[in-house]
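FAQ
Q: What does a multi-component entry look like?
A: The components come first, one per line:
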Amino acid sequence: MSWIKYTGQPVVKEATAIVGSPGLRSIGKIAVDYLVEELRPKLVAELYSPHFPILYGTKPSYAPHPDFLGQAGIKLEKGHVELIKIDFYSLASPPLLITKGYHADFKGQYEVAERVLDLYQEFGVKRMIVLAGYGTKGKDVCCAATDLELLEELMKYGISTEYEGPFYGFSGLVFGLGMLRGIRGISLFGRTQPNVVDPEYPDPKAAKALLERLSSLLNLTIDLSKLDD
Amino acid sequence: MRSRLYKEPQLKDPYMITGLPGIGYIAKLSVEYLIKELKAELFGELYSSSFPSYVLIRKDGTVELLKNEFYYWKDDKSKNDLILFTGNTQAISSEGQYEVANEVLNRAEKFKVEKLFALAAYVIDKPVKKPKVYGAVTEQELLEELKKYKVSPMNVGSITGTNGLLFGLAKLRDIQSICLLSETPGYRTSSGHFLADVRSAQSLLEVLSKMLDIEIDMRPLEKEAKVAEEFIRKMEELERQQAEMMHKAVTPPPKDIYT
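Then the predicted structure of the entire assembly, as tokens:
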């Protein structure tokens, strides 16, 4: 069973959850990592799980299989030991709860997503924006949503639906299961070229395009130039 | 596992028909066709943590979870109402397949299901014009029913996944059950995905509708079968051309260029 360690109180209620995880070309992960680095939100909770592998049994990590669960373990960074976790950060303006996601093994995928949604409900989250990548033909950024009304709103910003198909892993499940709980949400997909050898090989350019769109939706001013390096 | 119940229908001596996606999508196609033609009504959904870990983005941009669904059909003229069970996925771990099958059978017991028809695929080596339907039963007396509808008994073999477990676990619970399996070569794309074998589902539905004593219009399915066959033919032609090109690409150059 997964568990949560609270590290503080959210600075605002009814925030919009921003979700990203290491999916296709790591676009979602790059985007949320960048937001945390630039906006300096407050860490308010950490989710730990015995289902977070340090070594995945499948490649890519977001396509788990019941026969290949991988191995649990810890990581060392600058001499400090760390368990694998999902971090939740709170920002007052705009009111956001930024979630740095992680893919669980097959046995934990749904449970972890449900636990994340428990926390969202506890923190009063009403909406979510999921950041991810897509690898088919289309515009630089496209979208999906829990309902048609939200898709119409996005059309006003020039963001249309381009992608049809599966949305794998942590972010996809939080998005879909959130809908079951009445949390309305949109997903923004940055277009990328899939890398067959390493599906999670980072594509910062696609993440930048995604963050440009997000910034205009949220009226955020962020310097995205570091993603050009 | 999570389930949602929209309605608790009052059903008269119901039969249950089950078919989840598997080889050739035959079972799923057949149940879905019945749902469409009979205009059956959705009354429950089931979500399992053993389903694959993804959601689906539909063509219109909205999100859909992987799920299994229960439909019902009532008709004054019919002796038996129907419960139809299908979905856009099936659990992929053995544990999850048992869990889902048991949950479905819990519902079957609750509704006092008289007989369960589990649909599945019968894999053969090559395509046939008219796929044959095989049957297996949980009780000897049901063999007569197979004979009556000219269904060949399947005496040896295995039925994998939830479609098979529903049939096997029904026997453990003393729920009368017939498993109908339709022949298919199990067409796959080069990436390993199954293609829908509509012709096989058509054969299955012809037998099933007689067994259930219901009339369904098979003409739309005939059209679909023709489209699917044409698609498979084109795909096979494309794969053949690709294989030829690959062969040409690895053919060594003629010897005389070295001389």
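Q: Is there any commentary attached?
A: Sometimes. For this entry: The mean pLDDT of chain B is 89.
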